[in-house]
Amino acid sequence: MNSTRCHWGLLGACMLWGCGQTAPKQSLGSESDALVVPTQVNSFAVLATGHATFGDRSAFSGGDVGVAPGTGDSVTAGFDAQIALGNYTLGQRIVLKDRAHAGNLAATTVVPGAGATYAALVAYAPPPAAPPIVAFTAGTTPLQVNAPTTLAPGNFGLVTVNSTLTLTGGTYQFQNLTLGNNAVVQTTAPSVVRVAGRIAGGNSVRLLPTGSQPASALRLVVAGTTDTAGGVSLGTDARVTAIVVSRASFGAGDRFVGKGAVAARYF
């Protein structure tokens, strides 16, 4: 995700991300036993069970990053990336590419590129488990949105949005959600959208609450278990303001802007 601004807030409290922060002028951090690794789920903006990748020149802040134990690179920060400054990044193996900057690291292995910095290093500790996805049953009736539409809570099959879909608050259960280029799904009151399969979006899509509502006013729960049948996949220039929990991956193209938090297999 090149030139990405990832400003995810907390999974519980939902702070907003900050972007464009100036990297601290420091060298590689030192080991520190005085730091306390976070253990509460509401301090994390990203929780992944596989790995988390932040693209070149991305700026991520607003909460901690945690990746569960596994093999390979747990966290990768691309060239000139800034991740979790002032917070923690937890991963067994953390790769900081050239000129990447990070806050405190809880890791077994750190692989820094030229000019990469981090605040301090402590031993890796696993992050808390992601919020569970409870069983639910989506509907079977498809919904095609080709003109601005307001939708009351209910159960639906495949929902395809090529215009603006406005949710009025409550619980919505879809089989799948497909968004065409420039499609908008917005909520005027706190809403939970449960998707049994996956969310797939084109370029310049928007998923967000209206007005001054916080990101927690839109909660996206995506239950599909594989990246083919589940997860969240968005094109370039997407904007998401929400709390997202996905059993599979969360991915977006270049220039992605997000507010809220995400828990997924891969980020």
> Can you count the helices?
0
Neighbour order of strands in the largest sheet = 1-4-7-5-3-25
The main pleated sheet reads as: 6 strands, parallel, barrel
Unreliable residue stretches: 1-5, 12-26
Gap between N and C termini, in Å?
A: 10 Å
State the total count of DSSP E strands: 25
What does this structure look like?
With 267 residues, the chain is mostly beta strands. It has 2 domains: 5-122, no CATH class; 143-266, no CATH class. It has no helices and 25 strands. The chain has a 6-stranded parallel β-barrel. The protein is elongated and about 55 Å long. Mean pLDDT is 88; it is low at 1-5 and 12-26.
Keyword list:
elongated; 2 domains; mainly beta; single chain; 267 residues; disordered N terminus; 25 strands
The gist of it:
The protein is an all-beta fold.
Helix and strand arrangement:
Blueprint: E1 5-8, E2 30-31, E3 44-54, E4 59-60, E5 64-67, E6 75-77, E7 82-90, E8 93-96, E9 101-106, E10 109-112, E11 117-122, E12 143-145, E13 149-151, E14 154-161, E15 164-167, E16 170-179, E17 184-187, E18 191-195, E19 198-201, E20 206-209, E21 218-222, E22 231-234, E23 239-246, E24 250-252, E25 257-266
Parallel strand pairs: 1-4, 1-25, 2-11, 3-5, 3-6, 3-25, 4-7, 5-7, 6-8, 7-9, 8-10, 9-11, 12-14, 13-15, 14-16, 15-17, 16-18, 16-19, 17-20, 18-21, 19-22, 20-23, 21-23, 22-24, 23-25
